[in-house]
Write a structure and sequence with these properties.
The structure is a single chain. This protein is an alpha/beta fold and 343 residues long. It folds into two domains: 172 residues, NAD(P)-binding Rossmann-like Domain (Rossmann fold); 158 residues, N-(1-d-carboxylethyl)-l-norvaline Dehydrogenase, domain 2, CATH 1.10.1040. The chain is 44% helix and 15% strand. It contains 15 helices and twelve strands. The strands form two sheets. An eight-stranded mixed β-sheet has the order 5-2-1-6-7-8-11-12, with helices on both faces. Strands 4-3-10-9 form a four-stranded mixed β-sheet, with helices on one face. The protein is globular, with a radius of gyration of 20 Å.
């Protein structure tokens, strides 16, 4: 497909980890995609190429010579669209590296966790059109050069004329992009689901196995109920990003296993390989995004006078696990979080 210049559309993916590599790899069949990331990832893809698979059986293999990979921000200079998929801690640095190279007005789409990354990017890229996006599904590294999508969902992005020309391209790649006028609410709704990332990292088991156990679900219910109280105090109305309204989620999660399995079959329609990105970070010895997930709730609660002992405790436990990994049982963690909250 052609971009604004009449030449093939050029897309730069800044932060070519699991999410960036997956989205960029799918788009590469329909546009000139350049992945920008760490030298270690470049070397891995140079040896193995890029294999993409999904929970529904879809798959694609890019040979090493088919992967356009760079390690410096200057590689984004000619991009018609820039997708930012770095971890939240690296957002300000990413903006600083990209700023000298991007043309004025270049659309920059943040496909990142948390609530504040688009704002951080906009502050560092004042000449660009920075927009919020949301990736609803899980992508894990299943082997060298192999990325696997373990759950379903549709990409969303902030509605803006700058993105409309790219919609046919995303649709052709099997990644239909839904434009939303309520992205702040969408991000708040997604953050409720992302609160499970820390639990999955501490559990050390696949997502489907974790969510099938009531003790783990009750841990998540505690974290989500606390977040919902914070949202109410802050005047935030999270968008529905699951079949159920956000306010119903804690009650659903607390149900006995048999009833939960019947009522929440779609929540359990998860590939057996699926795990959270926070689990992957712990496995790789990388800092996690817990400060931009549970930490968002803690900071927002502090600003509005709402105690957040459950999410604060999870921040602490994940940071402890960054230094020395420990796997919890659901029963152990539930007792710990109940003690933290005084219940």
């Amino acid at each position: 497909m052609t971009g604004p210049s009449g030449k093939p559309t050029r897309i730069a993916v800044f932060g070519a980890g699991s999410i960036g590599g997956w989205i960029g790899g799918r788009l590469a069949a329909h546009a000139q995609v350049r992945l920008i990331g760490r030298p270690a990832v470049r070397d891995e893809l140079a040896r193995h190429g890029l294999r993409l698979t999904a929970w529904d059986g879809w798959q694609r293999q890019l040979a090493p010579g088919e992967v356009d990979f760079a390690t410096g921000a200057e590689a984004a200079a000619d991009a018609d669209l820039v997708l930012v998929t770095v971890k939240s801690a690296a957002t300000a640095r990413a903006a600083g590296e990209l700023a000298p190279h991007l043309r004025r007005g270049t659309p920059v789409l943040s496909f990142q966790n948390g609530l504040r990354n688009p704002q951080v990017l906009a502050e560092g890229l004042p000449g660009c059109t920075v927009l919020a996006g949301m990736v609803p599904y899980n992508v894990v590294r299943a082997g060298p050069g192999h990325l696997h999508q373990g759950t379903s969902g549709q990409l969303m992005a902030q509605s803006h004329p700058a993105l409309r020309a790219f919609l046919p391209l995303f649709a052709a790649a099997g990644l239909p992009l839904q434009l939303r006028r309520d992205m702040a609410a969408v991000q708040a709704g997604k953050l409720l689901l992302n609160l499970n990332n820390a639990l999955n990292a501490l559990a050390g088991i696949p997502l489907r196995e974790e969510l099938s156990q009531r003790a783990w679900r009750r841990c998540l219910a505690l974290a989500q109920a606390e977040a919902l109280r914070v949202y109410r105090a802050a005047g935030i109305r999270p968008a529905r990003v699951t079949p159920l309204p956000p306010a119903w989620l804690p009650a659903l999660l607390r149900l006995p296993d048999a009833l939960f399995t019947r009522l929440a079959a779609r929540m359990l329609r998860i590939d057996p390989l699926a795990r959270s990105s926070m689990w992957e970070d712990l496995q790789a010895g990388r800092p996690t995004e817990v400060d931009w997930i549970q930490g968002e709730i803690v900071q927002l609660g502090a600003r509005h006078g709402v105690p957040t002992p459950v999410n604060a405790r999870l921040v602490q436990l994940v940071h402890d696990a960054e230094r020395a990994r420990r796997h919890w049982t659901g029963t152990e963690l539930l007792a710990d979080l109940q003690a933290a909250s005084g219940r």
